[in-house]
Amino acid sequence: MITARAAASFDPVGRSVATARAFVRDTLQGWGYSDVVDDATVLTSELVTNAVIHAGTSADVLCLRTEDGVRVEVADRYPEREVPIQGAGASFASPDRENGRGLLLCAALASRWGVEYTPTHKKVWFQLDLPERPVGTRSAGPVLPVGLLPVADERVRVAVVQIDQSGAITGWNEDAEHIFGYADEQVIGKPLTDITAWPHTPGIGTGVAEALQLSRWEGSYGIRAADGRVVPVYASHLRVRDTHGEPSTVCLLVRDYERAVIQTPLRAPATDGGSENRSADPFEVFIGSPAPEDLDGLLQRTVERARDMLDGDSAFLLLATDDETELEVRASTGLPSARQRFARVPVEAGTGRYGSARMPAVHEDLTAVPGAVPLLNGTGMRSVVTVPLKVEGRLTGSLGVAAEGAGRYSNEEALRLQFAADRIALAVESARLGELERLRRGSLSFLVEASDLLAGTLDRDQTLALMAQMTVPTLATWCAVYTIADQSSEPYLSYVLHEDEDRIDGLKALLSKISPPDPVPTPGARVWAAPAEAAHRAALRTSMRELGGSSTPVSSGIGTTLATAATVGGETVVLPLVARNRVIGMLTLGKPSDDHFRQEILELADDLSRRAALALDNARLYSERTAISQALQRNLLPPGLPQVPGVEVEVIYRAAGEGNEVGGDFYDVFPIRDGAYGFAIGDVCGTGPEAAAVTGLARHALRLLAREGFGGPAVLERLNAAILDEGARSRFLTLLYGELWPQEGGGALLKVVCAGHPLPLRLRQDGTVEPAAEPQPLLGVLEDLELYEQTITLDPGDVLLCVTDGVTERREGTRMLGDDGLTDVLTTCTGLTAGAVAARILRAVERFAAEPASDDMAILAMRVPEPHHVG
After folding, report:
1. Looking at CB atoms within 10 Å, which of 315, 554, 591, 739 has the fewest?
2. Ramachandran sector of residue 281 (left: φ over 0; alpha: ψ -120 to 50; beta: rest)
3. Which residues contact 723 (CB under 8 A, 6 or more apart)?
C-alpha cells in the first residue's frame, strides 16, 4: 500500500544529478526513512546520470512510500535504447561501458528492481525495504545469554575529564579518580599527555594533543594509572567554548570493554535475508559490483560514491607518496580535475599544507580557515569532511567530500565516511601497488630502450633529437634541451619539441625571449615558473593590444599567443644534465595549462636525464676527436697536386673507418727544382697519433731532403735514421719514393726506390704489365740500410701505377685481390688517361667485396700521353 508520494523532473544538465540526489534524500528523511537514504541516493544518482548525461534527456523521479520501505522510479525519454536481457547468466551491462552501471548497482543494493518500457518512456525502478528493527531504536544487537555479556564493575563508571586550550587538565570527576587511582589534586594543571599511553590501538597515526584540537574525536588509547598499569580506555572528545570564548575539550572515558556505553554506533548497510542479489561484501556495497579493475576507474568510482553518500557537491581522493610526506591528487568529481590531477601537497601541518590527512577532520566553513584544504582553494567549496585511508596503520591516502554551503557536515558524517574508507583502503592500496609495479616494469623497459638508442649514435644533433623524442609525449607534453659548451658559457637553447608540431615555433620563440634556467648541479627535478609567467604576460599584452584596436578585427596573433600560453601554462620542471661532474645542459619538461607531473614520471625523467647527459657528453667528445682527426688528416696530405709538363698525374685517396682515423697511408707529389719532381706513396704501420707523427715526419722530411739535393737512397737512409730516433714511438714504414724528369721529346725518366712497399706496375701500350722496381728493406727497422735506386723510362702511352697495400690486400672471405688481380685489372686500362686508370682500379677494388674497405687506400697513376698527329 502506497502511503505517500513525491515527484520531480530534472533538465538534461550535469547539475541535475546533485539536485535529484538532494530531492530523494530530503524526501526520505522527511518520511523518517533515514536507514535507506544512502542506498537510495547512490542508486538515484546513477540512474539520473544515465538519463541526463548519457541519454541526454530529462529525468522524472518518483518516490513512493510504503509501509515496509520505499520505491523510487527514474524515467527518461529515450525508449530506443536497448532492452536489457534478464535471464540466467545474462550480462545486462558491462563495467567497461559508460552507461548501464546503474543496473548493476540496483542488483547489488536494491531489495527488488526492474525496467519498464512504454512507447515514450523508459523507467527503471528499485525497492528498498526497511530493516526489521524495534520501533524507535537506532541500532540493536542480538539477545545474548547472560554468561556471554561483558564483565563490568558493580557500577559502570564514566570518567569526565576537561582539558584547557594548553592541554592541561582542569576537570577530574570522582569516576576518573576511581578508574585511574589519581586524586584530582594530583592531576589538575598537568598535561593529559603526561598520563596517556598513545596510541593504544595500532594504526593511529597522530597524538593525543592533535586529537584534543579536533571538534570531535572518538577512539581508543590508554591511561597510565597511579599503580603504573596502562588502563585501555574508549574515549569520546567534544571541543567546546565557554561564555568568554575560551576553548576546552571535554573527554568521556570508559574502560575499553565497556565502550558500548559511549561509542557512536556505525551504520551498517541494511540486509535483506530474502534477497539473493544483495552483496554481503561491504566493499562491493559501497563501490558497486563488479568493481573496476584498473586503479583510475576504482578511484573515480570511489569519489563518486563518497559524494553521493554524503550528498556533496564534490569529492576527491589523494594517494600518499612512498615516503608519506606528500599526497598526490588522483581522482576528483565536481572539481576541475584537469587542473588538480597529480597536484601534490605536503602532509605536515602548516599554512597551505594538508595537516588533517592522518585522521578524520570536519571543516564547517573554509572561509574561516583559509588554506586548510589547499585542493579546494578557489573552488567555491565551504564545508568539507576528510578521512584517512590506512593499511596496517600506514597512511596510504585521504578521501574527502565537500559542499558549497557551510555547516553541511558533522562528526557523524566523518564516521560514516571513515567506515567506507576503511572498507576500500586495502583494495585501493592493492590496485596502487599493481599500477606501481606495472609502471616500474614499463619504466625499466623504457630506460633499457632509451639507453640502446642513445648508445647507438655519437652524433651530437641526433643525440639531442633522441632526448626530446623519448620524453615527448611519453613523459611530457613538450621538451626543451639547453646545452652549455663550457663553464664560462651561458646555456644555449639547442632543441625544442612539442607533441603538436604546430606549437613548436611559438614555444621556441617564447623560450628564446626568457633567460634560461640556472645550471644547478643538484640532482632531481625542480619547478621552473618563468615560461608560464612569460607566456601569461605575453598573452595579456596581446589581448590588450588587439582589443584596443576596435577598428580592426582580432588577428590570428592573439590566437597563437594564447595557444603558446596554454602550452606552457602547466607545471614546468628542469633536470640538470650532469656528466663527468660538470653540468653540460638542462632538460626542461612541461605540461599544458594547470597540469602536473606525477612523482613516478619525475623519477623516470631523472633516470633518463643521467643517461642522456652521458650520451650527450660522449657525442661532444667524439665530435671534438673527429674534428681533430680530420684536421690532422688534411694536414698530413698535400694541399694539391702540381702540374707536371708532359705527364698526367692522378691520385685517389680513401681513408677507411668512421671519423677517418689519422695515420695510415699517405702520398705526395712535389717540385724539387726546375724540371724535376718528387713523388712518394707510403704506409705507416698502425693508426692513431703515433702513426700520424711518423706520417708527418716522413712527408715533410722527404720534401726537405730532396730539395737539399740528396738522391733517392740518401733521402730514405736519412729518413730511416729519423724514424729510429723516435725510439718507442717509432713505427716501421713502407715507402715508394721516386724522382721524375719529363723529357722534351716525349716520355719521362724516373728513378725510384721501393723500400718494402708494393712494387709499382708499368702498363705498356701493347697491354703488357710488369713490375717497375725491385723490393728493398722497409724503413724504421734496421739501422744500416744500403738502398739503391732504379731507373725507369716511360714512353708515350705508358702508365706507372703505384698503390698501397689497402688495394692489393682487399679481401672477400678467403679470397684476396693480390698482385695478380691488380695486374689483371691494369691490363684492361690500355689507352685510358691517368684519371680513368685510377678510377677503374678503385672501382675494381670496391666491387671485389660487398663489405666496406677496412684499410686506407692510396692510388697514384702517372701516364705519358701520346703525341697528337695533325693529318
Report:
1. 554
2. beta
3. 694, 697, 698, 730, 731, 732, 733, 779, 780
683 torsion bin: left (phi>0), alpha (psi -120 to 50), beta (else): beta
CA-wise closest residue to 593 among 345, 395, 339: 339
Contacts of 658 (CB under 8 A, 6+ apart): none
Q: Give the integer Cα–Cα distance in Å for 73 and 567.
A: 47
- DSSP annotation of 867 reads P
Taking the C-alpha atoms of residue 524 and residue 542, their distance in angstroms, rounded to an integer, is 35
Instruction: Fill in the DSSP letter of residue 54.
Output: I
Residue type, 106: C
Give the angle subtended at the CA of 761 by the CAs of 755 and 766, to the nearest 5°.
Answer: 160
State yes or no: cis peptide before 95, omega within 30 of 0. no
- Residue 721 in contact with residue 624, Cβ under 8 Å? no
**pLDDT tens for each residue of 337-391:** 544 666 667 765 444 445 456 778 888 888 888 777 877 888 888 899 999 888 8
Q: Tell me how crowded residue 77 is: count the other CB atoms within 10 A of its CB.
A: 15
* Torsion 35-38-43-47 (CA) sign: positive
Of 35, 40, 32, 42, the C-alpha closest to 63 is 40
Residue 159 has pLDDT above 80, yes or no: yes
Condensed to tens digits (0 to 9), the pLDDT of residues 714-753 reads 999 999 999 888 877 678 899 999 999 999 888 999 999 9
Our separate counts of H helices and E strands in the chain read 20, 34
Give 288's DSSP letter: -
CB 301 within 8 A of CB 108: no
CA distance 826 to 823: 5
SS3 37: helix
What value does the mean pLDDT take over residues 129-136? Answer: 65
| CB-CB neighbours of 228 under 10 Å | 7
pTM of the model: 0.46
Distance (Å, whole) CA 488 – CA 824: 61
By three-state DSSP, how is residue 772 classified? coil
Q: Tell me, what DSSP letter sits at residue 323? A: T
Rounded average pLDDT over 409-413: 86
The whole-angstrom separation of Cα 432 and Cα 391 is 12
What is the Cα–Cα distance from 859 to 761, expressed in whole angstroms?
12
pLDDT band for position 445 (cuts 50, 70, 90): low
In the sheet with 648-654, reading across from the earlier edge strand, the strands are 648-654, 857-863, 799-803, 761-763, 769-771
What is the band of 241 on the pLDDT scale with cuts at 50, 70, 90?
Answer: confident
Separation of alpha carbons 248 and 163, rounded Å: 6
How do 478-483 and 394-403 pair as beta strands?
A: unpaired
DSSP 502: G
Nearest CA-CA partner of 588 in 495, 480, 476, 718:
480
| Beta bridge mates, 399 | 317, 387
Sign of CA dihedral 839, 845, 851, 852: negative
**Residue 672 CA to its chain's centroid (Å):** 67
* Cβ atoms 834, 644 nearer than 8 A: no
Q: How far apart are CA 868 and CA 871, in angstroms?
A: 10
The mean pLDDT value for 279-289 works out to 55
Which grid coordinates are listed for 214? Answer: 579536533
Neighbours of 318 (CB within 10 A): 27
Alpha-carbon span 525 to 609, nearest angstrom: 10
Beta carbons of 732 and 785 less than 8 angstroms apart: no
State how far the Cα of 814 lies from the Cα of 818, in Å rounded to an integer: 12
For cell 707510403, what's the residue? 682
